[in-house]
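agent> fetching stored inputs for the 6-phosphogluconic acid docking request
agent> found them:
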Amino acid sequence: MSNSDFGLIGLAVMGQNLVLNVESRGFQVSVYNRTTTVTDEFVAKHPDKKLVGAKSLEEFVQSLASPRKVMIMVKAGGPVDAVIESLIPLLDKGDIIIDGGNSLYTDTERRDKWLSDLGFRFIGAGVSGGEEGARKGPSIMPGGPASTWEVMKPIFESIAAKAEGEPCVFHIGPGGAGHYVKMIHNGIEYGDMQLICEAYNIFKAAGFTPDELAEVFTDWNDGDLESYLIQITAEIFKQKDKKKPLVDLILDTAGQKGTGKWTLINAVENAVVISTINAAVEARILSSMKDKRVAASKILQGPKPEIDVKKKKLVKKVHDALFASKIISYAQGLDLIASMGAEKGWDLNLAKIAAIWRGGCIIRARFLNDITEAYRTNPKLENLMLAPFFTDLLNGFQENWREVISIATLAGIPVPAFSASLGYYDSYRSAVLPANLLQAQRDFFGAHTYERTDKPRGEMFHTDWPDVIG
Ligand code: 6PG
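agent> prediction call returned; pasting tokens
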């Protein structure tokens, strides 16, 4: 019987939870997984739900009402293409395929063209929120034709998280725009996580125990730093394993699947500075070089990683440093979205993007309300730092921010993301930078010419520099 409202391929954790979410909103859902036992077990586990478990792709496609809506939740890259290829002979023109994985936006653009040339409709949707978000309400970033979005809107709006009563989903833009914005979301996620880890490292050097840190993070989560990542960090510090704090037993080597690296590549291509996110990606890379670090720790010298500041005072200072750096990280990520949006003619709405990040996703945070407000007030905002609310915060935080970086640096504690953030702030607010000397160097060795402070902009000069090679 062709009467399911929605179909999902790929019953890994995210897929299963999304299916249960869609079904709970009153839709009948067909499911298919390459390994049939997974489908059978999943359907058997939920006998009271309107689920149709298909044993073959043919059966799956035939069980869907027209126009068919098929969401693919498989590993990004080749597996997505493989599923699409096997679906093509089975679908009718006008049917809709949605890729809900963390696909690279350029792959999404290629698939969009490929499928629309064949008469199908395609949506590349970023879905954030992990397992819990998928089940209870994720933040969804869909890209593709507006007319296709209109067809999907009722389902997506019903399953998305709600923030201030608004669904955390809207049509981001055409083609790869949705997956692009999800990629930047992940870049910002990397930044947030690294900044929290640097705060943790400083606290550790000041003698804080995991139990004390659980308290600090719980307090922070009751204040202006309230966010999902601060909240789960508090929980992590509470977790014990064999009576020991679990965090102390976890090896310090970070994994990554690639979205952070893609964000960096895109930033370089667009000549946009995202130094905080850059530092976060590089910190993961350095963390993964465990053996090299252990060897170097016996050779390269530094001060004792000890911080002697009253705990209460330190908590306030680190709070300010963390919050200031976090503002910079979002300022950079949003700047990249704005630049890329303009470059691609995507007409991206930054206020709405910030608004759908307020609920469901990994980077959800109280201050996204203020970011949303800043872009609602001024959609053409040059940089988040320049919105009066954030300017006031940064002006208030900067003293403690500098102090925290100094204290950490003097104790030999690496704070690459804190430092990169402050470096961006100080560079951005410098009316004069030392690039005059750099221009002189370029002109010296390559006759690249320079502009002068005493002449109009655009007029180029060259100096006959002395010969130094003898
Ligand atoms: C989300 C997450 C999710 C995933 C990351 C993890 O928004 O729900 O970003 O997509 O957990 O891709 O990425 P790494 O493995 O690179 O940390």
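agent> quick read of the result: The mean pLDDT is 97.
agent> awaiting further instructions
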